[in-house]
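Query structure, 222 tokens:
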């Protein structure tokens, strides 16, 4: 299962990319806006940090399909075609995904809330779909169940689209979708770090060191 950093903060990305086995970075207009920087210099810096082989996702902000396609192609060319374009699952977005497929542009369908959102996006040609787990649950839905149903639909229809689950508030949600057939998860840096924030780990390591200290001199002398 793939693990992506959901951030546009270069310092956070540097740290997580260095410390954890991540597969790339997902960004969106809200994350970009928080950095108060121009889009392309920021995105190019992120690409330099993660290298050429990891996946990088950048979202369009246009509304109509023609403008979405034009914006996507511009992003694609500026980043040397080494980028995946995120597009919301509006009617115009779905149309744009189909057009971009013909150009050879890889896309991720974002703002997915239901299995049928994902079905239509995959059928249009999206390479990835991103269900919003926590936002689904904020609407009294079941994010984990949505992932399971998308997985079943994709299996039944032989779609090759991958499920990249997004929008999490805690590690339990992440674990649940990981057990439900998600191909990947995109997680903010703070939550990624919580994967290893178990007090017992630190306590165990300290105890190992204390135990070793009691015999080290004897072992070293031999």
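Result returned for the query:
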């Amino acid at each position: 299962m793939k693990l992506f950093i959901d951030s546009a903060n270069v310092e956070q990305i540097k740290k997580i990319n260095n410390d954890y086995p991540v597969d790339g970075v997902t960004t969106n207009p809200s994350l970009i806006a928080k950095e108060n920087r121009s889009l392309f210099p920021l995105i190019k810096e992120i690409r330099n940090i993660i290298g050429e082989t990891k996946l990088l996702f950048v979202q369009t902000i246009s509304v109509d399909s023609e403008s979405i396609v034009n914006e996507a192609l511009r992003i694609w060319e500026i980043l040397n075609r080494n980028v995946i374009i995120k597009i919301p699952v509006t009617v115009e977005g779905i149309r744009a995904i189909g057009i971009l497929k013909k150009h050879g542009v890889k896309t991720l369908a974002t703002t997915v809330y239901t299995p049928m959102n994902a079905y239509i996006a995959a059928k249009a040609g999206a390479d990835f779909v991103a269900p919003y787990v926590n936002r689904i649950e904020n609407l009294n839905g079941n994010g984990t169940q949505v992932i399971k149903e998308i997985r079943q639909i994709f299996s039944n229809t032989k779609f090759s689209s991958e499920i990249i689950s997004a929008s999490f508030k805690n590690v339990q949600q992440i674990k649940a979708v990981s057990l439900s057939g998600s191909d990947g998860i995109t997680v903010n840096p703070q939550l990624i770090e919580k994967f290893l924030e178990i007090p017992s780990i630190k306590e165990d390591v300290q105890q190992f060191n204390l135990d070793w200290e009691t015999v080290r001199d004897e072992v070293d002398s031999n």
